[in-house]
Amino acid sequence: MDTSMKAFATKLLEVKAIKLQPNNPFTWASGWKSPFYCDNRKTLSFPALRNYVKQELVHNILEHFPEAEAVAGVATGAIAQGALVADALHLPFIYVRSKPKDHGMENLIEGELPKGTKVVVVEDLISTGGSSLKAVEAIRKYGCEVVGMVASYTYGFQTAKDAFEAADVKLVTLTDYEHVVAQALETGYISEADVNLLHEWRKDPANWRV
Question: pTM of whole model > 0.85?
Answer without folding.
Answer: yes
